[in-house]
């Protein structure tokens, strides 16, 4: 990758963020009150809730577990990011925003090129 290629850097940061998001463990939802009521959402007391400050004690007691993304999942996420970028570029082009469409296409190409130069990604199917 060329030095100071801001488009490629932006695209790859986007892929890394998507992978980080995939590692997150979803927070369980509290029951939702019926529509049209002003009742607040019920919740556990703070002392019993690990998602509220002061709700857990001890070193690293509030650290949430992370899902470990496999190499196959990471490649799939990168391919999805590139495909979504190309789809968005088509919409921008249709709306008359050729400059934005061109940038999205360059970002998708940067992701594709990075995957193409990664031996493990090539073994996971067509790019």
Q: Would you tell me the structural class of the helices and strands?
A: mainly alpha
What percent of residues adopt helix (DSSP H or I)?
40-55%
Radius of gyration, in Å, reads 21 Å
Coarse shape: extended
Beta-strand fraction estimate: under 5%
Terminal Cα separation, in Å?
A: 18 Å
**Largest sheet, if any?**
none
Number of helices: 4
Mean pLDDT: 80
Number of strands: 0
> Which sequence of SSEs, written as H and E, runs from N to C?
HHHH
- Which residue ranges are poorly predicted, with pLDDT under 50 across at least 5 consecutive positions? none
Descriptive overview:
- By secondary structure, the protein is mostly helical.
- It has a domain at 1-24 and 70-119.
- It has helices at 6-23, 71-94, 98-116, 119-122.
- The chain starts with 5 loop residues before the first helix and ends in a 5-residue tail after the last helix.
- The model has no long low-confidence stretch (mean pLDDT 80).
